[in-house]
Amino acid sequence: MYFKGTYSNGYVGFDATEYFKANNIEEVLTYMDEGLWDYAETYAYAHFGWGNYDYTEEDFEDYYERCDHTVVEVTDMEELEGEDIIDLTE
């Protein structure tokens, strides 16, 4: 099965999409749950401003709580063409 996972922090243009080969959706959800913190850190400047590193841990946690992800099954195989696919079946 193939899936498309998208991270979002609520700001237009800052979504990050990854494609997966997995046995079930739960494998993808676990992978994305574990990667949400890294995603949030990478795009924190969208919330706090470029070069602004004065935010507190509490500020970051509030921002992090607004970050999320969605996963959908890919049914149109053409959508996968040219995309890097993370294989979770190995």
Question: Could you explain the architecture of this structure?
Answer:
The chain has 90 residues and is α+β, with helices and mostly antiparallel strands. The protein has one domain (2-87). It has 3 helices and 4 strands, in the order ββαααββ. Strands 3-1-2-4 form a 4-stranded mixed β-sheet. It is elongated, with a radius of gyration of 15 Å. The mean pLDDT is 89.
Give the helix tally: 3
Unreliable runs, pLDDT <50, ≥5 residues?
Answer: none
Q: Largest sheet, described in full?
A: 4 strands, mixed
- Count every beta strand, where a strand is a DSSP E run of 2 or more residues: 4
- Radius of gyration over all CA atoms, rounded: 15 Å
Portion of residues in beta strands equals: 15-25%
Structural class: alpha+beta
Query: What string gives the helices and strands in order?
Result: EEHHHEE
Largest sheet: spatial strand order: 3-1-2-4
Distance between the termini: 13 Å
| Helical residue percent band | 25-40%
Q: Oligomer, anyone? A: single chain
Bulk shape: elongated
Number of domains: 1
Arithmetic mean pLDDT: 89
How are the elements arranged and paired?
Layout: E1 2-8, E2 16-21, H1 25-42, H2 45-48, H3 57-66, E3 68-73, E4 85-87
Parallel strand pairs: 2-4
Antiparallel strand pairs: 1-2, 1-3
Report a brief summary of the structure.
The protein has 90 residues and is of the alpha+beta class.
